[in-house]
Amino acid sequence: MSSSELLAPLDLAFWHLESPTHPLHLGALVHFGPVPAAPGHEPPVDVLELLARRAAAVPRLRMRVRDVLIPVGGAAWSADPDFDVRRHVREITLPGADFPAEATRIAAELMESPVERGLPPWEMYLLTGAPDGSFAVLVKLHHALADGMRAVAIGAGIFDEIAAGRRPARRPRPVPPRSWLPGPGRLLDLARDRLDDLGRAVEVGASVVGASVVRAGRLDAPATALTAESSGTRRLATATLPLDRVHRIRRTTGGTANDVLLAVTAGALRRWFDGRGLPLPGADPRALVPVSRRRPGAAPGSGPGNSLSGYLLDLPVTEADPAARLAAVRHAMDRNKAAGPSKGAGAVALLADRLPPLAHRFGAPLASGAARLLFDLLVTQVPLPRSALSLGGAPLRALFPMAPLARGQSLAVAMSPYGGQVHVGLVADGEAVPDLDALAAAFTAELDLLDP
């Protein structure tokens, strides 16, 4: 990464959408087994020191956001001259009686607070105290810094296998100073680009407005259990599903593993509504399913910033039959893929790429409440490397991804397959969804219905 780089439009949008009571970072709670005993008389691995050293070696994690004069309203990534990794990597010792539950509880508390905006926008916490020597790491990355796939690429730098193969960072080449005033030829190119952007923005904007009108025109209000004003609190819960069972269902019914997981999510929500004693919503809750726009074959972390779009999906919560729920999800996702990601809610991300920086800076207060007009919850899948990973020799046991909550929404679902399992991370508003553990348990029960 260069010593200074403008924030891409979508990154700038995420940066300005955040508020002190509504943080906009994503994260992961990563569980590791015990560090193996050091051979001979070698000192044991200091995991905190190792974590800090490897995080500091990731160039992206040394960059902070600063305002710039040109373009007006813009911002840029620049190297933090006073970077101190100890301000970002900390250790917390937990009671060991039920370490996984304690780790989830403290992670929820830590996810409530925004990262410090004057520093590189990320934090890592080493969580220790388990009787068997196992530990966990909580990672927080501001959404302006990375989308899900890039977060994996950035965070992977802490693992033994990736750190061992990392090449020494190249010293950036000096760039000769040049005027920021474009020449006549460049002015003509800029004019053509702006006209092209305007045409694409109009097309994409029509898709967004159309989706909003259809949404607002539905007679039934969205499920109130999934929407709430932000309380500033967070609750986390996790579930683990056997990946071989997901693939067995996929082979039997067709479609993709993601279709199966979306159907399981719909069934879990239905079971959760029932367990709460709530009537089913009059209309199925609508999910935003993010889609990466990185080119096929590109490395997961290639290219700066966020590169994503999304599909709208009405989760068939009102359908009683599990097989019919899966069929409905599969058919809806097939239609979404045939139409492409420039339609519906995914077009919001595409539209952000066409707006000037000043529009993001001053339009953020208006745009912050737009999500609830388009969808009720986020459901995303974050791919991980297939190879076995470790930290200081301690094997990675589970990685539970955590997606940010959109303003006015109470629940976000993120899933990552690794080591033959699908790890489900649920993030909820702590006051709106105090019974998040019940929803997490419903994921396993719903998988059992599809694969008895």
Characterization of the model:
The protein is an alpha+beta fold and 452 residues long. It folds into 2 domains: 4-164, Chloramphenicol acetyltransferase-like domain (Chloramphenicol Acetyltransferase, 2-Layer Sandwich); 189-450, Nonribosomal peptide synthetase, condensation domain (Chloramphenicol Acetyltransferase), CATH 3.30.559. The protein is built from 13 helices and 15 strands. It has a 6-stranded mixed sheet, sandwiched between helices. A 6-stranded mixed sheet has the order 8-15-14-11-9-10, with helices on both faces. The protein is globular and about 60 Å long. One of its GO terms (molecular function) is diacylglycerol O-acyltransferase activity. InterPro entries: Acyl_transf_WS/DGAT, O-acyltransferase_WSD1-like, O-acyltransferase_WSD1_C, O-acyltransferase_WSD1_N.
Number of strands: 15
CATH 4th-level superfamily of the largest domain = Nonribosomal peptide synthetase, condensation domain
Kindly name the structural category. Answer: alpha+beta
Please, how many domains? 2
Total number of helical segments? 13
Please state the average pLDDT score. Answer: 81
- H-E order: EHEHEEEHEEHHHEHHEEHHHHEEEEEH
At the first level of CATH, what is the class of the largest domain? Alpha Beta
Q: Quick one: overall form?
A: globular
What amount of the residues lies in strands?
15-25%
CATH architecture of the largest domain: 2-Layer Sandwich
Termini distance?
Answer: 50 Å
Largest sheet: 6 strands, mixed
Keywords: Acyltransferase, Glycerol metabolism, Lipid biosynthesis, Lipid metabolism, Transferase
EC number: 2.3.1.20
Protein name: Diacylglycerol O-acyltransferase
Domain O-acyltransferase WSD1 C-terminal: 305-450
